[in-house]
Amino acid sequence: MNLYEHTIVARQDTTQNQINQLKEKYSKIIEKFDGNIVKTEDWGLMQLSYIIKNNKKGNFIHFKLEGHGKMINELEKNEKIDKNEFNKKVEKKNQLETKGIEVGHIFYFGDKYSKPMNAAVDKDGKKIFVKMGSYGIGVSRLVGALIEANFDEKNEVMKWPVSVSPFECAIICFVSKNDTTSIEMGIKVKNFLEQNNIETVLDDSDENFSGKLKKFNLIGIPFQILIGKNPDKNKVEFKEVGNDSKMISLEEALNFIKSKKIN
Fold first, then answer.
1. Do 114 and 185 have their domain in common?
2. Which end of the chain lies in a sparser environment, N or C, as judged by fewer CB atoms within 10 Å?
């Protein structure tokens, strides 16, 4: 068996009775996985290095254990959340279970900042500048997280949130060598939307229309206006990515996009 040291920090207002219950709970887990408690130490109420959920202090309990990796995994699992306790305190209607994505990562600075600050340590009689780093949100990680959260892999459809999309609406035109009606209509629609502060992109490329639709579903601009071979003068085919298209007036399309920008 391996030797482990495991420390628990309970809230500063935890009673002695609750601490005893906590110890008993851990003892049962350790016994269940054929582990052994070598020593338990109550370190008492101690100052925290930083405030955690408005607590400046915490009750420290330290275990010296013998056991295997599975035992430690189970201890850590139980520390994350007590489901029964959670269900007692939080009503079902106020509970939400969803997928989370980590958007932070580590930035390595090396000695870029430690040298100007003369932050060094002595190692074997030699002055060595400490290596520094930080943990925070990175732009590249955010882009990946947004794609992971908003890409429908089954239908191969991407939908950028309006707040970060490079354009708000894509105008996709049917192109014919002998008829420029749809392109002319597309230009009018683009000008109208841009006059009303809607950022648009117009696709008037000589490409198969269905191919364009598939391409823009992958690009993920949240709204599309589709202009076919014989466009309606009073209505446009409007689509919110991921939903069915519908025939509405251009003013209705404008108001819908604006309402989504506000939300």
1. no
2. C
